[in-house]
Amino acid sequence: MKLSDKYIITVLEHSGPQTFNELYHVLKSSFSYLDKSNLLRRLKRLRRKSHIRITKKGKFVSQAITKNKTQDNDLPANDFHEICKKYNYKNQFTKKQLVEAGLFKPLNAKDFPTRKDFRQDLVITIDGADAKDLDDAVSLVKTNDHFILSVHIADVSYYVKEDSHLDREARKRGNSVYLIDKVIPMLPEPLSNGICSLNPNEDRLALSVVINFNLNGEIENYNFYEGIINVAKRFTYDEVENVLQEKNIKETKYTPFIDMLNNMKVLAHILHKQRIRDGSLDFNLDEIEMIVDDKSFPIEIRKRKRLTSHRIIEEFMLIANQSVAKFLGQKGSSIYRIHETPDPEKLNTFNKFIRKMGYNLKDSSKPDPFELQELLIKIANKEEEKLINTILLRSMKQAYYHTENKGHFGLSFKDYTHFTSPIRRYSDLLIHRLLKDAIGIKTECKLIKNDSFLLSTTQHISITERTAMEAEREILKKKAARFMKNKVGEVFNGIVSGVTSFGLFVELLPYGVEGLIRISDLKGYYVYDEENYLIYREDKKLSYQLGSQAKVILTNVDVKRNFIDLVIAED
């Protein structure tokens, strides 16, 4: 790669004022052939063209910094509003909706004599440290021959009546949207963070499922109740993890919960092992966590650790969702979370690719979750694990909601729905209404008995979910661009994370942020081989494949367009 004037300007834009020697050393690290006299000539030419100037302290600075300084300074706080505008999200509720949300008085258990009283049970919540809308709580009792798991879910349907102002708005929104440090909630805060949220030491209404397992993790029976609970303690995932690893076992505030948490760990392990045995796919892919300051500026990007405490809640929610789906499937109308069988053509392409690594699917025209899970187990902790996980996941179809039960391929469940998050998902709120009707609780709900209403709603909320995912991905890209902006000119180790006809996406280590190498910036003429996730130079002496390692230089960051531009670093 040759040093261009544009590159020098870009470095100055993103690194700020530089002395001649500072700028020379930054550029020299990427362009070994550069000498000081050559750089001096270039800088004089750029000054004559008014692209750069020299400050009173003798430092070179891009003219663009002066022009855009005010605009740049206020952008981080505006990212949220830009996303809201682009995706037509409303961050406010109408007066009528807020009036409905504020109608509810503090709970008095005496007003609910017919509800099952779980307040003497040792009930806890386990959530992220910043979570405010606490949908779910759990309790576990182990006897000589049984595990008795209680999963308590906020009874949002008691507060949000069918076809009310709140309900119509919740249906329109479809779900809450989480934009790093801000939330566009499905329900107003007096409900989502208040009376519905399962906050500790407060009586709360719940829709509960109590599941009896034998010690092998096999379900013997389950029952559903309108309940009332009082959460004994709010745990974070990290707190539970520390208790399980006996890091803070001497702290007396944890003493009443230690046995139960360890029993939860045992049951979750049994359920997970059973689920994998039954063909459920367990992808091992990193998640990125973005940390921002109080001005919404990104200050840290790190990979999210997958803890045992996460696994506990994941397994308990899965089994609760599955139990509700089975029960409603026997009773009549319901809505389901559908994940269809992969397209055989895509799986065949995947199979051709993994054969070159020594793996093989017996018959890719008939996708088998058991065989795919066996593959994931075989590649665990191997160099190719991430690559194969990534390509297999991209070969899967997208999950959605429907009134027809078509099963969930990825989980290998015949029956599956979403029941456990009614504060943030409209699908779960509908399921609560359907479940109450199925267990004989009198409600005034009429729409849930209308099949065309249910079908149209599943189609709508499938769309709102995808839109939310796009918005959440976009703000991550925006913040990632901000984070990388002052690193222009730096060299990074990376892994090719995407191969297209126009270039290579490279994941920059250690951040997990993606940038693009345009194919026009590669030396020589390159050919795109879609089937093998590959581009290769015409002389076949050089190629880049998904999963290849690459050393790259960050050349430009465009925050407005969320672009991170890279080039291959010369050895």
Walk me through this protein's architecture.
- The protein has helices spanning about 5-15, 20-30, 35-50, 65-75, 75-85, 95-100, 155-160, 165-175, 190-195, 235-245, 260-275, 310-330, 345-355, 370-380, 385-395, 425-440, 450-485; strands spanning about 50-55, 60, 115, 125, 135-140, 145-155, 175-180, 180-185, 205-215, 220-230, 235, 285-290, 300-305, 335-340, 400, 490-500, 505-510, 515-520, 525-530, 535, 545, 550-560, 565-570.
- It has about 575 residues and is α+β, with helices and mostly antiparallel strands.
- The protein folds into three domains: about 1-75, Orthogonal Bundle (Arc Repressor Mutant, subunit A), CATH 1.10.10; about 80-340 and about 395-480, no CATH class; about 490-570, OB fold (Dihydrolipoamide Acetyltransferase, E2P) (Beta Barrel), CATH 2.40.50.140.
- Strands 3-10-9-6-5 form a five-stranded mixed β-sheet, covered by helices on one side. Strands 18-17-16-22-23 form a five-stranded antiparallel β-sheet. It has a three-stranded antiparallel β-sheet with strand order 19-20-21, with no helix packed on it.
- β12 (about 285-290) and β13 (about 300-305) form a beta hairpin.
- The longest helix has about 35 residues, at about 450-485.
- The chain is globular, with a radius of gyration of 28 Å.
Poorly predicted tracts of residues: 65-73
How many domains, as an integer? 3
Main β-sheet, in a few words?
5 strands, mixed
Strand order of the largest sheet: 3-10-9-6-5
Question: Gap between N and C termini, in Å?
Answer: 11 Å
- Give me the Rg, rounded: 28 Å
| Total E-strand runs | 23
Q: Helix fraction? A: 25-40%
State the secondary-structure class. alpha+beta
Beta-strand percentage? Answer: 15-25%
Shape: globular
Mean pLDDT: 90
Count of separate DSSP helical elements? 17
